[in-house]
Amino acid sequence: MRRLAWLMPLLILAYARAQDWVSESFQGRGVVGPYTLGWNQIVERSEIVLLGERWLLRERDYWMDYAAGQIRFAEPIRREATVRIGYRIQPGRSQKNSASDIALSSELMRWGTASLSLQGRVQPQAGTPQTDLGLRALWEQSHGQTEALYILRNPRGEQTPALFRFGSRWQTPEGIALELQLSRVDTAFGDARAYGLTHGQEQAQARFEWRADQALRTRLLWHHQRALQNPLQAREGWLAGIDYTLPRASLQLERQLTEQPHQPLSLSDRLALSLQPHQQIRLRLEERTTQQGEHQRSQTETRAEIGQAVQLSHLTQQEGEQRIEQSRVAVQAGTERVQGKVELSQRWQQETAQGAAQVQLQMRLHPTLQLGGEYQAQEQAGQLRGYQLVANPFQGAQLRLSERLYEGWSGYELRSQQLEWEWRTPFALTLGGQWARYPLQQGRPQPMQVESYRLRYARGAWAVEAGYHEQEQLAQADAERRYLLSLQSQLTPATLFALTFQRTEWERDAFLREVALRLGLTHRVNRFFLMLEASAHLPRADQNPDPNRPRYGGSLKLGVEF
To answer: Given its phi and psi angles, is residue 154 left (phi above 0), alpha (psi -120 to 50 degrees) or beta?
Structure first.
């Protein structure tokens, strides 16, 4: 702790309200996640998560992806369970997440407490949407439930990739809980994270848990995992643990054994102690040691939090003769108009030391003008500085301007710039556009330049939309341009009409183009809807043996809203 002494003067900063606070809730889907939240670019470690009335612990009960705005849980969230979460967003940086997919569920039949239902998901993608369809059997009792799920992806015959998941959970009045899970996902199934699984793997897990009272819990877990295409990528292990929880303190002890083909047995121990001497003060000590054959490594972390304003931590890692230590302090404070955050860290490795600093500032200069800035620097690793501006110059108009200058930070020497604007006129006309050079994707600059414009006019039940998008790869002579024109109409309260024309051009070694025309009609009757689509498609010359002959297609789909 003596190495943290140079950081202590920062603790005189008072606690104050920081970034905007957002609260939301969602129902479980019977999987661990990921569950997509309403916003991305969430302020790190600002969240509070409740499952029912139970307060969940970060990095034990759940894990957050702050950049994407997603949460993943340690155990599947039951369908009847409600998760409530509150978190802070960063004005000018955080954006709303769009709905990534549509979940389908319809009960086909029921026998007492057992039921059989139709399950599925439709995920919009470029071209053909990805469709999952299958059956779910469920048997529920007051003391437990058993579930079986079988899903086909894009059903098309005997070679359709499938997913199978079986789970059974039971609990006795004496505090004993038993759980069994089996799963298998074909390699060709693709991304199965929405079901809490990984494609190309089969898994099995059994868990025994005994709660002697409200404070003491013991647990024993066995798990097996194997890759379908490579049996050598297999893992089997045991985990035993004891948890003791009091109102203001908790203790966790764990031991884990892991065995893999042609590798020495791995033995891991973990100890975690949490204290809350005051409502606004939280202390935590966590120690991990792992030994595999002659190789041994350990990690010790101490952490202190004072409300949401101050965070202190010290991390020590030991692997063989190599020792690494890192100290960190973060303070965030502000007023109704100005919020700021300062983070300093120091890293020691052998005889070398490396310091880093990060500063963030958000200011609401006027109800129509917000300004933010950031600065990051690290010894011998460059620096980064940038700003964000959000303005509403007049009613219906919004302007977003951001810039980042990389000077050796993460190996980049460039300037990232982005401008977005939108104007909703009083005449039912919406104009918008974007210009970006080295735009950011998942926090990293991409070597491209983007320029796009869009126009939408709505009158009564009709809407016309036109758009242009140009994207140029800066590292190579590669450009892509897209032209879009669409017409939509609500013919009746139950019938929607859409006509879309899209032309795409590429400039590489040769000039290429692609043209598509789609006509769609959707009719809704109560909870059911019928979708009819016809299309004419002229593919690129390098993908079509007869470049002057278009391809025609059509589809008829029946759906139900749940």
So the answer is: left
